[in-house]
Design a protein that fits this description.
Shape: globular
Helix content: 40-55%
Largest sheet: 8 strands, parallel
Structural class: alpha/beta
Number of strands: 12
Strand order of the largest sheet: 9-6-3-2-1-12-11-10
Distance between the termini: 15 Å
Radius of gyration: 23 Å
């Protein structure tokens, strides 16, 4: 791992006039910001189509992209929309993402573009589209069927559909393919446009020497095309209800633990075909990003299982998982696989051994280091082979953390950072990470900008008001950016 630094920012948080950050001009301008400040890492959250709670960790597919990230203005260049079609309502131009308004608005715009494509398909674009759904058809068709059935069933979860759809009756699916061709094709078309735009973003990042660090959630959403299409790989009851569900026990983030509600894997079924589903999933993700952060790595050694009917995560047990077997197969299938292991929470010697066995760097969170008794998270204790953060998408911002901290915590931080008072906490914290021995340092964009808790991305254990934060349009400051670039040069993190 070459010594590097970078920024954590999901594309949805980019400034835009379309209600949510997208893969348009602001995305390329952000890459310019990274390059000009010497950053060579861009960490993002999962890119999938968000479902329950608008969370990128609860997606309708582990393979598909999120259509909400599509830049509508780029569809003007393809002759599918006019400027008036992409005119933004007032609520969309700034402020937090309003998913309740955004989803129907975006669908209306995209359906208009799709209608224009059907009416007069450009031969070159049609050729690209055909190539896309030919190559990606093994997951794409299942996803398009799933989304079509979601619409036909008023967005109800798949386990509430009538049995012929829920149980994937062959005749019923054939009927669906025949009677709803355009709707199925619409969802494939959106995935094609997403892929077309993301490919340009990825190439632009590579041209600037920037690695994109993607995110692979260990579990998939219960209400997803994955569980509906490949139910044999998940622990479900005969009526499609959850036999057991996912979560974590009580911890720093939640006193009752976190009840995620995802299905657990049927590992024997996955092992029977040499982890085909996992190999397919990683292959797809590596076509989008350069490095994979494996979320909740600890769950590959032993995962927390909660009874399907439980109301809190307190009732769970730890159950062994075949991490060594799985990663052996993945390492063989993808010799150049670049992985960061999210090894936070209750980490046992067995988890450490699994991480060490495959040489994966773990994560260090500076905020945790300032809490009493958490010295391993302070930079002077970091091993070289790790990725250091001020905080993750689940943490408060750095200023939000210090603003809520007690006097002893703030005093401890000032003493360790060797600063006279709390007004220097942010810059001193960044300098401490940059000069640490950690190979990679990544900070949330909110911490670079010095924003408070109103810019927090997610509060674990809650389902409302998360994932909404967006950058202000004018976020750049030349003087501060020069300091960031100099920080990289001083501590050998500016690799260009």
């Amino acid at each position: 791992m070459q010594r590097r630094s970078g920024i954590l920012l999901h594309p949805s948080s980019l400034p835009s006039a379309t209600g949510i950050g997208n893969l348009g001009q602001a995305c390329f301008e952000f890459l310019d910001f990274l390059q000009e400040t010497g950053q060579t890492l861009w960490q993002i959250l999962p890119l999938g189509p968000t479902g329950y709670g608008d969370s990128p960790y609860q997606c309708f597919s582990a393979f598909a992209g999120n259509p909400l990230l599509i830049d509508p203005c780029a569809l003007i260049e393809l002759g599918l929309l006019t400027e008036s079609d992409t005119k933004s309502p007032a609520w969309a131009k700034s402020g937090p993402v309003d998913f309740g308004k955004l989803v129907p608005h975006a669908d209306k715009v995209f359906r208009k573009a799709f209608a224009a494509y059907l009416a007069a398909p450009d031969p070159a674009l049609a050729g690209e589209f055909k190539e896309f759904y030919t190559v990606e058809g093994w997951w794409l068709h299942e996803f398009a069927l799933f989304m079509t059935l979601k619409k036909l069933n008023n967005l109800r979860p798949w386990w509430e559909w009538e049995p012929r759809w829920r149980l994937r009756d062959a005749d019923a699916l054939e009927e669906l393919n025949t009677e709803h061709q355009d709707e199925i094709l619409y969802h494939k078309f959106l995935q094609f446009i997403f892929q077309k735009q993301w490919t340009k973003v990825r190439q632009a990042a590579e041209d600037k020497g920037i690695r994109i660090v993607g995110d692979l959630p260990i579990f998939v959403a219960y209400d997803s095309a994955d569980v509906w299409a490949w139910s044999r790989y998940f622990r479900l009851n005969p009526d499609s209800s959850l036999e057991v569900k996912t979560g974590v026990p009580p911890d720093y983030f939640a006193k009752d633990g976190q009840l995620w509600g995802n299905p657990h894997y049927n590992w024997p079924a996955m092992l029977a075909d040499d982890y085909w589903w996992w190999r397919s999933r990683v292959f797809r993700l590596m076509s989008l990003v350069h490095t994979v952060r494996i979320d909740h790595f600890r769950g590959f050694e032993a995962a927390y299982e909660v009874p399907g009917a439980a109301e809190t995560a307190r009732e769970g047990i730890w159950a062994k998982a075949p991490g060594e077997s799985l990663f052996t197969v993945l390492t063989s299938a993808f010799p150049g696989l670049s992985v960061v292991a999210e090894d936070l929470g209750l980490i046992t010697p067995e988890v450490e051994a699994l991480k060490t066995r495959f040489g994966y760097p773990g994560m260090k969170i500076l905020q945790f280091g300032f809490l009493d008794g958490n010295a391993p998270f302070l930079p002077h204790n970091y091993e070289k082979h790790c990725v250091a953060f001020t905080g993750t998408h689940d943490n408060d911002t750095l200023l939000g953390f210090f603003g809520k901290a007690d006097a002893d915590t703030v005093s401890r931080a000032c003493r360790w950072l060797d600063i006279p008072g709390p007004e220097l906490l942010r810059t001193a914290s960044l300098r401490a990470l940059w000069r640490s021995s950690a190979d990679w340092v990544i900070i949330p964009m909110q911490d670079w900008l010095g924003l408070g808790d109103d810019a927090r991305m997610n509060i674990p254990g809650t389902t409302g008001g998360n994932w909404r934060w967006r950058l202000a349009k004018r976020y750049r400051n030349r003087k501060d950016e020069q300091w960031l670039a100099e920080l990289g040069r001083t501590y050998d993190r500016n690799t260009q």
